[in-house]
Write a structure and sequence with these properties.
The complex is a heterodimer. Chain A is α/β, with parallel strands linked by helices. In chain A, 34% of the residues lie in helices and 24% in strands. By secondary structure, chain B is an all-alpha fold. The chains are: A alpha/beta, B mainly alpha. The structure holds adenosine-5'-triphosphate and magnesium ion. Adenosine-5'-triphosphate binds next to helix 1 of chain A.
Chain lengths: 249, 256
């Protein structure tokens, strides 16, 4: 269970998060939608302790990660798998070693077990035969899938996805979404997915949270959000301009 | 008036804060060198990286430094009629002074800048964040291997620089200026003490620490964007060079 209470964060004089409140149940899939530059990535980085909030708390399975020391924070981090917006693959090692990295360094598994797991997950994301290539040598979509494989290979309890499908073609987009649904069925993780793929993401998640002007202005099932009467949400979801959203502030 | 005083105050605060930050970074890194688990493979990889990148340039600069040195010193010594002292003069200048300093400056330009760029790119592409998110300590993977490798590589490269420089001096002194090869080397043996070699060794170890520390620090705390990385790289090279020359003077004055 993840509980975010009154999260505030500013950079210099720019207020990015102005009191975010959200509860995410175990094994739930939640999508975070919102404008570009609206603070979605900043929000996600707080969940794994990469940023410290100015105010507010984040309670993960009963541990307030904004208050604990590094050692305890690292214990909570063990539960996570993260897909960063840019992939964040290690460019000094090849694809195989990228995916094997958390298994080797974090879980300290034996090489034959690692090999089996890496091969299996690379098959699932549809990337067979590129194990020897380096991140710089593969396409952007492939990099996204490798990042996905690296996050899921440790079978984490909580997975954070920062735009796992942005910039992919429609077929790949659906296959990644299906992959998330399938692995979620298989491993039952709690998932937070930042996405711009509206409405496709609505078929994946249990709930949708709309982050606007530093706050979660609306949370609900995809159906509820789609039938929302809130003019701002309506505008954002349909993309049709009716003056509700301030773009350039 | 008030504004300029404010500016000075602000600069001073930033300076002190940065100095403290850098010092803490160094202390942390040095602690992790002695606390397991060690990443031995990465350590070897960095030795190869730094050595490989710098060896050829070191050899080239070493040869010409030795040659120029012999030429200059020969010119001076001839005025006193003591050309026989060319060997020790070249050797002492190289071993005590030029070997450690010039090889450190060379490695800064070749490997130090590359280290800053590499770590800086890892910062801006969130690779460092990815390590932290895996509950792993980025110091162990990125900083410690570089600093530990520098401790090994700098003295070795300096030794190579010294030997090649002395050979360069030999080419000029013996082959071109007609000194006898026996004089060049036997006088050297007599006048170069173990203390001189020790000083050169201490200097090179100290420079290794400076270069790896500053290169890693600047990369690790690079600001965002490609300009951030190029700025950090330049700063790392300039700052390392300044620190090398200052500490060279300090160590030298200590051992007079
Ligand atoms: N480390 C930082 N230092 C200063 N400002 C930052 C930092 N990280 C993010 N910001 C600012 O916070 C704001 C929110 O950024 P964020 O990356 O969270 O947006 P986003 O919602 O993820 O957008 P996108 O959908 O384009 O990825 C931006 O205006 C950005 O400039
Ligand atoms: Mg983002």
């Amino acid at each position: 269970m993840i509980k975010i209470i009154d999260l505030h964060k500013s950079f210099a004089d720019q207020q990015v998060l102005k009191g975010v409140n959200l509860e995410i149940a175990d094994k739930e899939l939640v999508a975070i939608i919102g404008q570009s530059g609206g603070g979605k990535s900043v929000f996600l980085r707080h969940l794994i302790g990469l940023l410290k909030p100015d105010k507010g708390s984040i309670i993960i399975d009963g541990v307030d990660i904004t208050k604990v020391n590094r050692k305890e924070l690292d214990l909570t981090r063990q539960k996570f798998g993260v897909v960063f917006q840019g992939g964040a693959l290690f460019d000094s090692v090849n694809i195989y070693d990228n995916v094997a990295f958390p298994l080797r360094e974090k879980l300290m598994l034996k090489e034959d077990v690692i090999k089996q797991k890496v091969t299996e997950i690379l098959e699932e994301v549809g990337l067979v035969g590129i194990e020897k290539k380096y991140p710089a040598e593969i396409s952007g979509g492939m990099r996204k899938r490798v990042a996905l494989a690296r996050a899921l290979v440790t079978e984490p309890k909580i997975v954070l996805f920062d735009e796992p499908t942005t910039g992919l073609d429609p077929i790949l987009l659906h296959s990644i979404h299906n992959l998330i649904i399938d692995t979620h069925k298989k491993y039952g993780f709690t998932g937070v997915i930042i996405s711009h793929d509206i409405p496709e993401i609505f078929d994946v998640v249990d709930r949708v949270a709309f982050l606007y002007k530093g706050k979660i202005v609306e949370v609900g099932t995809p159906k509820e959000i789609q039938n929302s009467t809130n003019p701002v949400s309506r505008h954002f979801i349909t993309g049709k301009y009716d003056g509700s959203i301030e773009f350039f502030n | 008036m008030k504004k300029s005083i404010q500016k000075i105050g602000k600069r001073t605060i930033v300076f002190i804060r940065t100095a403290g930050h850098m010092f803490i970074f160094l202390m942390k890194s040095l602690c992790y060198i002695f606390i397991p688990p060690f990443k031995f493979k990465l350590f070897l990889k960095q030795i190869k990286f730094i050595g490989n990148k710098s060896l050829l340039v070191i050899a080239l600069i070493g040869t010409f430094t030795g040659m120029v040195l012999a030429l200059q010193i020969f010119y001076t010594l001839r005025k006193f009629g003591s050309e026989a002292m060319l060997g020790p003069a070249v050797a002492l200048s190289l071993i005590r002074e030029l070997g450690p300093v010039l090889s450190a400056l060379t490695v800064t330009g070749r490997a130090g800048s590359a280290i800053t760029a590499e770590i800086g790119i890892m910062r801006i592409t969130e690779q460092i964040d990815a390590l932290i998110a895996m509950a792993l300590n980025p110091y162990r993977y990125l900083i410690v291997p570089n600093i530990a490798a520098a401790f090994v590589v700098f003295p070795l490269l300096t030794a190579i620089f010294d030997v090649i420089g002395i050979l360069g001096g030999y080419i000029v002194g013996v082959k071109l200026l007609g000194l006898s090869s026996g004089t060049y080397f036997s006088q050297m043996k007599q006048y170069v003490d173990i203390v001189d070699i020790e000083i050169g060794l201490y200097k090179s170890i100290c420079f290794g620490l400076i270069v790896s520390w500053i290169s890693c620090y600047k990369g690790f705390y690079t600001s965002f964007g490609a300009e951030g990385v190029s700025k950090s790289t330049t700063e790392a090279v300039v700052l390392s060079s300044v620190f090398i020359l200052i500490s060279d003077y300090l160590i030298g004055s200590f051992y007079l």
